[in-house]
Specification:
Oligomer: single chain
Number of domains: 1
Largest sheet: none
Radius of gyration: 42 Å
Structural class: mainly alpha
Number of helices: 12
Helix content: over 70%
Distance between the termini: 137 Å
Order of helices and strands: HHHHHHHHHHHH
């Protein structure tokens, strides 16, 4: 029995040693390899330098506040405001351009539809005198009535004038866009310049509104008035910060140049502005007459169509003639775009009024260093009037000689309009 226990113990010990021998693997010696160092090339040096500069300039954890501060450090507040205004101006240019195309289509489609309806109704009235058909009588009356309603709406909104308003707004917004880009290109804009640009945007929005209901411009005012698209607080649209003197000097101004500007202003008042005032009132009267005549003729045609029958052919003839005259009146008013011509005169009158206020505001400034440079101002006025500087001087001297002789000058100041 004891021999069995001894043999069992010896067998268990031997099996344990085998297991331990299988598990405990002897450790291998560590091998240390020494690789030769690669000398840094120019490329690796450049990468290392760029990484160091990035680590010093841009921290690893940069929050939104820090990035905003870095942005404001690189760009002034006025510059950021100018870029924001520039984006708004670009968007308005696109909007006014789209509205111009839309309202021009309105004028074409409405005019064609009205003339087709009116002429069709006139033809039905003429046929009714021959065959005395009650259906033609009712249909022509309804067509004349529908034409009257459509014509009243069309004369109220004046689509051709609306399209011209949007054309002018697009041009003026593009002009403001160029002015802002010039200020940004010159550099160092101030917050006062940004506020002035914002006022000009709002003044243009008020002068040329996009919606029709509630804010549409009056299409038949009591008298002609030039368009006003600039803020009253800042009538000088020229960039005063360009070539402005910071010292107490004449800043390019001489007594002869001031006299020349006053003389040019007198020529503008007596010739250009007076002529556009006369033409604007004339076109306004013509447009009012045509706008009243069209619906009146269609009403007469509708009544004649309703009351006419086979026995009273003269009533149907009056209806047919009135319908034909209504179509001709509509073609003259809206096909000739009389409303567009009136708006064009308003815009040209506003151009001269703005130039007048600009010259007066500049000359009334007694401190020469606060004015724009005189030579630059003279060149801008000449370009506005479509003249060279020498031609501008010749016009001023001609006005002075005519004035001394008591003769009115016949030449206009502008060669553009």
């Amino acid at each position: 029995m004891s021999s069995l226990q001894i043999s069992a113990c010896s067998s268990s010990i031997s099996s344990t040693r085998k297991v331990n021998a299988a598990i405990n693997v002897p450790k291998l010696p560590r091998l240390r390899l020494s690789l030769p160092k690669i000398p840094p090339t120019s490329t690796t040096k450049l990468v290392l330098e760029v990484n160091r500069s990035i680590d010093t300039i841009i921290p690893s954890q940069l929050d939104v506040t820090t990035s905003t501060e870095l942005y404001e450090d690189n760009y002034s507040k006025a510059t950021i405001q100018f870029y924001a205004i520039l984006e708004a101006v670009s968007d308005r240019i696109e909007m006014h351009n789209n509205m111009c195309e839309q309202r021009n289509n309105w004028n074409t489609l409405l005019l064609n539809s009205l003339n087709m309806i009116t002429l069709t109704a006139s033809t039905m009235v003429g046929l009714n005198t021959a065959i005395d058909d009650s259906a033609l009588k009712v249909m022509s009356t309804l067509l004349f009535t529908a034409a009257t309603g459509m014509l009243l709406i069309m004369n109220k909104i004046q689509p051709s004038q609306l399209a011209e308003e949007q054309r002018n707004a697009t041009r003026l917004f593009k002009q403001l866009q160029t002015e802002i880009q010039t200020i940004l290109a010159i550099g160092n804009p101030t917050e006062e310049d940004a506020n002035s640009a914002m006022e000009k945007v709002l003044a243009l929005d008020k002068a040329y509104p996009l919606p029709l209901l509630g804010v549409m411009l009056e299409k038949f005012p009591s008298k002609y008035e030039p368009a006003v698209w600039w803020p009253k607080t800042n009538t000088n649209e020229f960039q005063k910060q360009v070539l402005r003197s910071e010292k107490k000097t004449n800043n390019g101004w001489t007594p002869e140049l001031e006299t020349e500007m006053w003389q040019i202003l007198e020529v503008m008042k007596r010739k250009d502005m007076e002529d556009y005032d006369r033409l604007g009132n004339l076109v306004l009267k013509v447009n009012k007459t045509l706008a009243k005549s069209g619906p009146l003729l269609t009403v007469i045609a509708a009544l004649g169509s309703a009351l006419g029958n086979h026995g009273s052919s003269w009533v149907s003839i009056v209806a047919a003639v009135a319908g034909s005259l209504a179509a001709s009146t509509n073609a003259l008013e809206h096909g000739g775009q009389v409303g567009m011509v009136f708006e064009m005169y308003r815009n040209c009158g506003g151009f001269f009024k703005l130039l007048q206020e600009t010259i007066e505001a500049t000359l009334e400034e007694k401190a020469f260093e606060k004015r724009e440079n005189g030579e630059l101002f003279e060149m801008k006025v000449a370009m506005k009037l479509g003249r060279s500087v020498s031609q501008l001087k010749q016009l001023a001297s001609k006005f002075a000689s005519y004035e001394s002789e008591g003769i009115g000058i016949e030449e206009f100041a502008s060669k553009l309009f």
